[in-house]
Amino acid sequence: MIDDLDRAILRVVQGNAALSAGAVGRAVGLSQPAAWRRLRRLREAGILKGRELALDLEKLGFGVTVFLGIKLATKGRVSLEDFERAVTAIPEVRRVEHVLGRYDYRLRVTARDLADFERVLRRRIMALPGVGEVESNVLLSEERLPGPL
């Protein structure tokens, strides 16, 4: 179980996962060794996973992000694993989420522009095994609001 000090550490590393144990310790009032031990325990418990690098996709030439809702047409005829394997092989698909509700999957797709997105949609995504209904939502803006711990 985590305590209030662990929660404080999580708030600090949520803002910058690359901070050293010494910097984390200074932020929460711990020594470097004590912060390092707590960080190691949080990683071993699976609470802290990896270190995420955030790329500015727009500066890299990917100016369009689209969320797709995908409903499989033939559940049972196409295995979920086959669909997931095929969709994760598409480089423009940045995230695949298996969800409950109207759609079976939610995808986050990046493209250079709308014409590029249309090419990805028609030639890659619509050609996937079992794809039925598809709904697109173009991202207009995005704010990251860290949740409370």
Brief descriptors of the model:
4 strands; elongated; 149 residues; Arc Repressor Mutant, subunit A
What does this structure look like?
This protein is of the alpha+beta class and 149 residues long. It has 2 domains: 4-44, Arc Repressor Mutant, subunit A, CATH 1.10.10; 64-138, Lrp/AsnC effector binding domain/regulation of amino acid metabolism (RAM) domain (Alpha-Beta Plaits, 2-Layer Sandwich). It has 5 helices and 4 strands. The chain has helices spanning 4-15, 21-28, 32-44, 80-88, 114-125; strands at residues 64-72, 93-98, 105-111, 131-138. Strands 2-3-1-4 form a 4-stranded antiparallel sheet. It is elongated, with a radius of gyration of 20 Å. The two termini are 13 Å apart. 15% of the residues are buried.
Mean pLDDT: 89
Low-confidence runs (pLDDT<50, min 5 residues)? none
CATH topology of the largest domain: Alpha-Beta Plaits
Give the tally of structural domains.
Answer: 2
Hey, roughly how much beta strand do the residues contain?
15-25%
CATH architecture grouping of the largest domain: 2-Layer Sandwich
Shape: elongated
Structure summary:
The chain is an alpha+beta fold. It has helices spanning about 5-15, 20-30, 30-45, 80-90, 115-125; strands spanning about 65-70, 95-100, 105-110, 130-140.
Topology:
Layout (H helix, E strand, L loop, with lengths): L3 H12 L5 H8 L3 H13 L19 E9 L7 H9 L4 E6 L6 E7 L2 H12 L5 E8 L11
Antiparallel strand pairs: 1-3, 1-4, 2-3
